[in-house]
Automatic annotation (TrEMBL):
Pfam families: ATG8 (PF02991). A lipid is attached at residue 93 (Phosphatidylserine amidated glycine). GO terms for biological process: macroautophagy; response to stress. Its main location: cytoplasm. It is found in: Cytoplasmic vesicle, Autophagosome; Endomembrane system. GO terms for cellular component: autophagosome; cytoplasmic vesicle; endomembrane system. Keywords: Autophagy, Cytoplasm, Cytoplasmic vesicle, Lipoprotein, Membrane. It comes from Tricholaema leucomelas (pied barbet). This is MLP3C protein. Belongs to the ATG8 family. Gene3D superfamilies: Phosphatidylinositol 3-kinase Catalytic Subunit, Chain A, domain 1. It is a lipid-anchor. The gene is Map1lc3c_1.
Length: 93
């Protein structure tokens, strides 16, 4: 199986979380979203007290138990990429 193409961008109004140095990722199909989020957390160098959320279409919170393949099939863009946005909790409040 070929890896999935995922682009992860920072929410445009985000002020707390740092930007990622790399936004394009090749991700294994069977990887749970929770593991991908953990890898992103490491790349962002977040403290254990900091929270971040992954969003689809800047509004929907995907289930962390979903595999990347399930998420990709449900939400991929016409260009073949899966777009995710990350944001801190403050954007909801």
């Amino acid at each position: 199986p070929s890896p999935l193409q995922v682009i992860v961008e920072r929410y445009q109004k985000e002020r707390t979380l740092p930007p990622l140095t790399r936004t394009k990722f090749l991700v294994a199909e069977d990887l749970p979203l929770a593991h991908f989020a953990s890898a992103l957390r490491s790349r962002l160098c977040l403290a254990s007290s900091q929270t971040f959320y992954l969003l689809l279409d800047n509004k929907a919170l995907p289930g962390v138990a979903m595999t990347m393949q399930e998420l990709y099939q449900a939400s991929k863009d016409e260009d073949g990429f899966l777009y995710l946005t990350y944001a801190s909790q403050e954007m909801f409040g």
